[in-house]
């Protein structure tokens, strides 16, 4: 009997958690770039999805609020996984800065530019794969990612390469990012 009551209790608890899960959405395109981008965040799974075509906006630090002005700013701690769908061409500067629970990001072959500070302070991010389409990675794109142990680059990328998880320019004359982990 106790086992059955415990099972029922767990089922009810699980249902209550589902009742409080929320989905947030909005737009995240560059102001003048003709972008048609939208975002959706499922707070239960922690999955942020960026969809559409064009460039993401760059996000600036708001000193008055002591945070970055990403459209999902109020939910930074709940983002665990980011899926960027094909069609997105630029990931804006500081777009995912301070996503402290982020462990996984998917960057499609349509992305050509990763902005400055894009993944700064993503302390649980462990690895990133840069597709062959990326031609520009901004300053400190992966700084202060204390768990980052590997940045891999597609072998056919003409601008960047990686060796043992360390990010270099293609001819290895510039160290772009040494993983913090």
Major beta-sheet overview: 8 strands, mixed
Instruction: Give a count of the beta strands, DSSP E runs of length 2 or more.
Output: 15
Q: N-to-C terminal Cα separation, in Å?
A: 49 Å
Q: Structural class given helices, strands, pairing?
A: mainly beta
Low-confidence stretches: 5-19
Give the overall average pLDDT.
Answer: 84
How large is the radius of gyration? 18 Å
Number of helices: 1
The helix fraction, in percent, is 10-25%
* Cα shape: globular
Strand content: 25-35%
Structure in a nutshell:
This protein has 181 residues and is mostly beta strands. The chain has 1 helix and 15 strands; from the N terminus they run αβββββββββββββββ.
Structural key phrases:
181 residues, mainly beta, 8-stranded mixed sheet, 3-stranded antiparallel sheet, 10% helix, 33% strand
Describe the 3D structure.
With 181 residues, the protein is mainly β. Helices cover 10% and strands 33% of the residues. It is built from one helix and 15 strands, in the order H-E-E-E-E-E-E-E-E-E-E-E-E-E-E-E. Strands 1, 2, 3, 6, 7, 8, 9 and 11 form an eight-stranded mixed β-sheet that branches. Strands 13-14-15 form a three-stranded antiparallel β-sheet, with no helix packed on it. Strands 4-5 form a two-stranded antiparallel sheet. It is globular. The chain starts with a helix and ends with a strand. About 8% of the residues have low confidence.
Task: Give the topology.
Blueprint: H1 2-20, E1 23-27, E2 36-42, E3 47-55, E4 61-62, E5 67-68, E6 81-84, E7 88-91, E8 104-106, E9 113-114, E10 127-130, E11 136-137, E12 150-153, E13 160-163, E14 166-169, E15 175-177
Parallel strand pairs: 3-6, 3-7, 6-8, 7-9, 9-11, 10-12
Antiparallel strand pairs: 1-2, 2-3, 4-5, 13-14, 14-15
